[in-house]
Amino acid sequence: MYDPKVIDHYNNPRNVGSFAKDADGVGTGIVGAPACGDVMKLQLKINDQGVIEDAKFKTFGCGSAIASSSLATEMVKGKTIDEAYAIKNTQIVNELKLPPVKIHCSVLAEDAIKAAIEDYRKKHGNATPPSAVPVRTTA
Amino acid sequence: MLKLPIYMDNNATTPLDPRVLNAMMPYLTESFGNAASRTHSFGWVAEAAVEKGREQIAQLINASSPDEIIFTSGATESDNLALKGVAWSYKSKGNHIITQKTEHKAILDSCKYLQKEGFEVTYLDVDKYGVVDPESVRAAITDKTILISIMYANSEIGTIQPIPQIGEIAREKGILFHCDAVQAAGKIPIDLQSTLVDLMSLSGHKLYGPKGVGALYVRKKKPFLKLTPLIHGGGHEKGKRSGTLNVPGIVGFGEACELAHRELPEEMKRLTHLRDKLREGLMAKLDYVHLNGHPEKRIPGSLNLSFEFVEGESLLMGLKDVAVSSGSACTSASLEPSYVLTAIGVGPELAHTSIRFCVGRFNTAEEVDFVIEAVVKHVTRLRELSPLYEMVLEGIDLNSIKWSAS
């Protein structure tokens, strides 16, 4: 029923935890809603060069939602914020081989990355959007 | 040694009791006759076996006569036959049916179908435990009402309805009363001498009998209860349900009813004890656990709990050695959680965290201990992963947050 990669992320989630929200260089994204059965909190620690040094997550949701956010923290590490902002949910779908009913989990993970970057930009007075805003695709 | 995985989903289906299989075996092998064959001993043997099964089933519910039992392919067919059969037979008298919101889909979807044919259906609300108020049934009755259909017990939350009281009201008003008793039969005493139900749906595989066999009890009364058949053919079951009888299935269903009837008092005690042990064990070790359903008026063995801040499907994924089910809809394409939990006022946040445990005949205290330990372990781990639990521990009111719609 689940791809082995989903099971692996579920059993051994990467980068679980939290940074202090008001810490320097931390951007926090919280997306989803308890009523929908999915809430993701994704946090990024970004250095002066705009590179994501570390990432943490916590997720309320099904195994695929946990795996999507766990994978997202791995994907963003070492990327610039512009590179991370360009990550598409389809990359997560392909990596975890998510079935159609679980695609919304990957969309949520993409949204969480973007929300965390936007939060960082807002806090650091740099509200300019990335040069190329990626087109949202859901499949 | 525990044998894994542990099956604790006995409201969905039950394993076949080996004693039932023993009773069925001859009819799956040498005694293969058609119960409708009147010209030879193969048929006579099969017919006698069917009549014994009919008698065993009648005894479980204390029906007046085995002739009140009609065999079907299962409770879904029984529900369809009761609702459509009565609706079509009595439409000249009225077009109104009363039911309630937590019925099985076989009832709700049959009602929806009848609405398309011009019937009017009242879906009564239930209280926070899932109980229908008999007075709300009385209040819904009009001069067009021809049928009331209320289940005995709910499969998701186990709540038992006040069937005897509703039966009194139905009789007083002269309205036919159907009861889907699939989850109650063999688990709690049913006495159709004192309980005025006119039609009752039963299933073989919910009480350790085989799948593919069910029954509809039809009370012998005056005036004669009319039932338009769904299936036409050889005029079996007094024309109410054509088709060659499932002899081994009926033998197994009958044997299962006899065993359930004989062991019911002891088994009620044992299952209630195991169910309460499970609930108490979990609630002692975990906070933010909520019981869904009635605290006492509940079938033995049935336990539905919400583990706040832990999504049900993710918990099921962790409980890979335990077969239970969830009210979370995340396994389906829709994001809507269980309609039963919604009907009792459980919000979607909590419905997504619900797990149904159904302890049955073959579960042991040792298994319950294993399940407690496994659930505690995984709920604790998943809460460490849950941003909601973290927020609550920080003192944040989750209702004060404006969540993004995803």
Describe the structure.
- The complex is a heterodimer of chains A (139) and B (406).
- Chain A has helices at 4-11, 63-76, 81-85, 89-96, 103-123, and strands at 26-33, 38-46, 52-60.
- Chain A is of the alpha+beta class and 139 residues long.
- Chain A has a 3-stranded antiparallel beta sheet.
- In chain A, strand 1 (26-33) and strand 2 form a beta hairpin.
- The model of chain A is unreliable at 127-139 (pLDDT under 50).
- In chain B, 39% of the residues lie in helices and 14% in strands.
- Chain B has a 7-stranded mixed beta sheet, sandwiched between helices.
- In chain B, helix 1 (18-28) runs antiparallel to helix 7 (247-285), helix 2 (41-60) runs parallel beside helix 7 and helix 3 (75-89) runs parallel beside helix 4 (105-116).
- The longest helix of chain B has 39 residues, at 247-285.
- Chain B is globular.
- The termini of chain B are far apart.
Instruction: Give the beta-strand count of chain A.
Output: 3
Q: What is the CATH topology of the largest domain in chain B?
A: Aspartate Aminotransferase, domain 2
Q: Which CATH architecture of the largest domain in chain B?
A: 3-Layer(aba) Sandwich
Query: Cα-atom Rg of chain B, whole angstroms?
Result: 23 Å
- The topology string of helices and strands of chain A comes to HEEEHHHH
What is the C-level CATH assignment of the largest domain in chain B? Alpha Beta
How would you classify the quaternary structure?
Answer: heterodimer
Class computed from helices, strands and strand pairing of chain B: alpha/beta
Main sheet: strands, sense, barrel of chain A? 3 strands, antiparallel
Can you tell me the overall shape of chain B?
globular
Name the structural class of chain A: alpha+beta
- Mean pLDDT across the residues of chain B is 96
Strand order, sheet with most strands of chain B: 2-8-7-6-5-3-4
**Biggest chain-to-chain interface with counts:** A-B, 33 and 31 residues
The DSSP helix count of chain B reads 12
Query: For the terminal residues of chain A, how far apart are their CA atoms?
Result: 19 Å
What is the CA-CA span between the terminal residues of chain B? 46 Å
Structural shape of chain A = globular
Low-pLDDT windows of residues of chain A: 127-139
Helix content percent band of chain A? 40-55%
